[in-house]
Design a protein that fits this description.
Aspartate Aminotransferase, domain 1, 16 helices, Aspartate Aminotransferase, domain 2, alpha/beta, 12% strand
Length: 436
C-alpha cells in the first residue's frame, strides 16, 4: 500500500498541478510549440530527453529547406547570387548568430564541415610537436571520435600514441575529474605537452569544466589549448574569447537542433586569425571573399576563423541551422540557462526522492558544474540498467544508454516542460519498483 501511495496514479496526479503551474508561469514555454515533438506509432507524444544526442527539429526547418530547394529549381546556378538567401554568403550569415553562443567575436567563428573534420583541420595548425614537447593531453574516456582524431594526428607526425597521448582519469573510486587534478597534470607534464584538448562538458558524465582555468594552466605551461564543445554549445554559456582558448570545435545537431549530420563549427581566437604564422590546410573557401572569384593561384586568407574553411557550405545542411539559431538570439542563453538549471534540478530531486538508493546520479550535484544532462547509474549492475533503459523506451521515454552502465537524460529548456520531467521521472521510478 505504501508503494502504491508513493508511486501510483493518484500520487502522480497529486504532483501534476505543481508541474503544470510551473509550465504556465514559464516565460519560455511558448518555444515548445516551435519544435516538432516525436510521436509513437499510436500517435502519443513521446517524452523526449535526448537533446544531448540529437536535438528536435525546429518547425521552421522544413520551410527553410524547401525554400532552398525551390530556389535551386527556379534559379539553378543563379541561386548563388539571387536566391532569397544567396548561397555564396550563406556561411557568413551564420557567424553572427553563432558568436554569442560561443562567447566569441563574429570573425572568430565559422560554420563548416563536421566536428571531427574541423578538429583535424585545427590540429593541423595548433598541434606542432617539436623536440620533447610532442604529447597531447585529453581526458580518459573521451568521446571516441576525439580520441581517434588525436591518436591519428600523433601518428601522422611519426610519433607513437602509446607514448604521446596522455589520458587523465578520475581518482580511483570517483567518476568525475577534479579541476585541480587537470591543473596539476598540466603542471607536472607540461614540458612534454604540445597541446591540451579538453571537453567543455564530458559526454558520459555530464561534468561541466571551467575552461578559463584549463586555458590558463595550459598557457602557463607553454601549451596550446583547444576545446570540444559538442555538448556545451547551446547548452551552457560560453566565453571562448575571454577564456583565452586557442581554438574550439563543435557539432550542431545536439543542443543547436540543426539536424542529423548538420554543419559543424569552429572558433579560432583572433590572435591567430590575422597575420598568424601558423600553418594551415587551405581551401578555396578560406580565401578572402573579396578576391575569391579571381581564382588567383596565391592564397589570401580570409579574416579570422573563416580562413580555415575549405569548401562552400552545403546549403541543405546549413538551412536547418539557420532556422534554429534565431531562437537562441530571440530568448538569449542567460534565460535558457536559468530554465535549464531549474528543470535539471527538478529532475534530480525527483530521482533522488522517488528512487533513493536504487540509482546514483554521477553528474555533479552542483548546478554550476553541469548542463542539461543527468547521467544515472542503476544499482544492481549494467544488466539491470540496460533492462531499465529498454523499459523506458517501451513506455515512450526517449533517453540513451552509454556503456558500460549509464543512462543519460537531458531536459532541454527549448522544448521540455516541467510536466515532461515529472512524467519521465515517474516512469523510471515505477520501473524500479519491486514486482509482485
Amino acid at each position: 500500500m505504501k508503494t502504491q501511495a508513493r508511486h501510483g496514479p493518484a500520487a502522480l496526479e497529486s504532483r501534476l498541478d505543481w508541474a503544470r503551474s510551473q509550465d504556465a508561469a514559464d516565460a519560455l514555454a511558448g518555444l515548445r510549440g516551435r519544435f516538432a515533438l516525436p510521436r509513437a506509432a499510436d500517435g502519443r507524444t513521446l517524452l523526449y530527453f535526448c537533446g544531448h544526442s540529437l536535438g528536435l527539429a525546429p518547425t521552421a526547418a522544413r520551410a527553410m529547406i524547401e525554400a532552398e530547394i525551390s530556389d535551386w529549381e527556379r534559379l539553378g546556378v543563379l541561386g548563388h547570387e539571387h536566391a532569397a538567401a544567396p548561397w555564396t554568403g550563406y556561411a557568413e550569415r551564420l557567424a553572427p548568430l553563432l558568436a554569442p553562443l560561443a562567447g566569441a567575436l563574429p570573425h572568430e567563428v565559422v560554420a563548416m564541415n563536421s566536428l571531427s573534420v574541423n578538429l583535424h583541420l585545427l590540429l593541423a595548425s595548433f598541434y606542432r610537436p617539436s623536440g620533447s614537447r610532442r604529447a597531447i593531453l585529453i581526458e580518459a574516456g573521451a568521446f571516441s571520435s576525439d580520441r581517434h582524431v588525436v591518436a591519428s594526428q600523433i601518428g601522422w607526425h611519426g610519433y607513437d600514441p602509446e607514448h604521446e597521448l596522455i589520458e587523465l582519469a578520475p581518482r580511483p573510486g570517483e567518476d568525475l575529474i577534479r579541476i585541480e587534478d587537470v591543473e596539476a597534470r598540466i603542471a607536472t607534464d607540461g614540458a612534454r605537452v604540445a597541446l591540451v584538448l579538453w571537453p567543455g562538458l564530458q559526454y558520459r558524465t555530464g561534468q561541466l569544466f571551467d575552461l578559463q582555468r584549463i586555458a590558463r594552466a595550459a598557457h602557463g605551461a607553454g601549451c596550446m589549448v583547444g576545446f570540444d564543445l559538442a555538448h556545451s554549445i547551446g547548452n551552457v554559456p560560453l566565453a571562448l574569447h575571454a577564456d583565452d582558448a586557442d581554438f574550439a570545435v563543435w557539432c550542431s545537431y545536439k543542443y543547436l537542433n540543426a539536424g542529423p549530420g548538420a554543419l559543424g563549427g569552429a572558433f579560432v581566437h583572433e590572435r591567430h586569425g590575422t597575420g598568424s604564422e601558423l600553418p594551415r590546410l587551405s581551401g578555396w573557401w578560406g580565401h578572402d571573399p573579396g578576391t575569391r572569384f579571381q581564382m588567383s593561384p596565391q592564397f589570401l586568407a580570409a579574416r579570422g576563423a573563416a580562413a580555415w574553411a575549405l569548401s562552400n557550405p552545403p546549403i541543405f545542411s546549413a538551412a536547418p541551422l539557420l532556422a534554429a539559431l534565431p531562437l537562441f538570439a530571440e530568448v538569449g542563453m542567460p534565460a535558457l540557462r536559468r530554465k535549464s538549471m531549474v528543470l535539471t534540478a527538478y529532475l534530480a530531486s525527483l530521482l533522488n526522492e522517488l528512487a533513493g538508493e536504487q540509482l546514483t546520479i554521477i553528474t555533479p550535484a552542483d548546478p554550476g558544474q553541469r548542463g542539461s544532462q543527468l547521467s544515472v547509474r542503476i544499482a544492481g549492475g549494467a544488466a539491470k540498467g540496460r533492462e531499465l533503459f529498454q523499459g523506458l523506451s517501451a513506455r515512450g521515454v526517449v533517453c540513451d544508454w552509454r556503456e558500460p552502465d549509464i543512462i543519460r537524460i537531458a531536459p532541454v529548456p527549448l522544448y521540455n516542460s516541467f510536466e515532461d520531467v515529472l512524467r519521465g521521472a515517474w516512469q523510471l521510478c515505477e520501473l524500479l519498483q519491486p514486482r509482485h
